[in-house]
Give the backbone structure.
Amino acid sequence: MTAEVYHVPVMPKEVLNYWLSDPDGIYVDGTLGAGGHSKMLLESLSAQARLFGIDQDDEALMEASKNIGDDNRFTPVKGNFGYIETLLGNEFKEKVDGILLDLGVSSHQIDDAGRGFSFQNDGLLDMRMGNLQGLKSTEVVNDYSYQKLRSILWQYGEEKQSGRIANAIIDARPLTTTLELRKAIEKVVPSRFLVKSLARVFQAIRIEVNRELEVLKQGLEQGTRMLKPGGHFVVLSYHSLEDRLVKNYFRSGNFEGKIEKDFYGENIRPLEPLSNKVITATEEEISRNSRSRSAKLRVALKKEVIL
Ligand SMILES: C[S@@+](CC[C@H](N)C(=O)[O-])C[C@H]1O[C@@H](n2cnc3c(N)ncnc32)[C@H](O)[C@@H]1O
């Protein structure tokens, strides 16, 4: 029997290269997962350095602690990175050298049928990344109005058949399992488009349940305030809605991407992108770790405030 691989870190070398600036510094992993990226960072840090690893999932925190082992530089923190300022407190404001967000769910969360993330496994409709929030996917599919359901499938899944699928879900109510949801979708989507539609619908519901875009915006704004001037913000995202928010925020300091200039023609923004182009995984990595195929890495540096 082969042991299950909990999660393989994506673009490990590239992430470490940008995340690490000062070996004695203070770092935050906002999406600890199995601690793969964190463990690599710790191997490059000095004995004085500190690393806070945030995750909202108890299982991930346990797995990471097991993977990292006893290390007094490392502090696991249960919580949502959207509240990073509250989680770390004023003591660390403007003191953090680097923040990593490796967005979305881990391979383990997807593979665990009981979490209800996958249309390939049958499980109860849940999709919560942790037990901190109340909403589950069962409420989204069973209680939302046609308008609301169609709108999340359209906005968060960019699903062209959102109206037909919303109707099919409503017709199939009550739904309790991911297989029932899949069957409802199968009734209205031609088989050649099915896998992509299933992926988009499951993605849309997951984003709604975990308020992923709202939380990402909060995390980017609060994380930027926690960084010290010169500190690095590193974000790995896996779909275009997230990547657009990160790209706009890094370039312009707002989520619409509106660039404002000061009197001297300099861009007014708290961060400076460290790479103009998005960074993607190499073919070699994609062949080893299919999850890296959709990954987009963006990095930015906190600017000095000149008064
Ligand atoms: C892609 S995995 C991270 C994998 C990790 N980089 C590694 O190398 O093992 C994402 C993790 O972030 C957590 N997560 C996602 N969004 C979160 C949020 N808003 N707050 C806290 N944890 C979050 C998930 O529970 C999951 O464990």
Summary: Residues 7, 9, 31, 33-37, 54-57, 60, 80-82, 102, 104-106, 129, 215 surround S-adenosylmethionine (CB under 6 Å). The first strand starts at residue 26 and ends at 29. Residues 12-108+213-302 form a domain with the Rossmann fold fold (CATH 3.40.50.150). The chain has two domains: 12-108+213-302, 134-210.
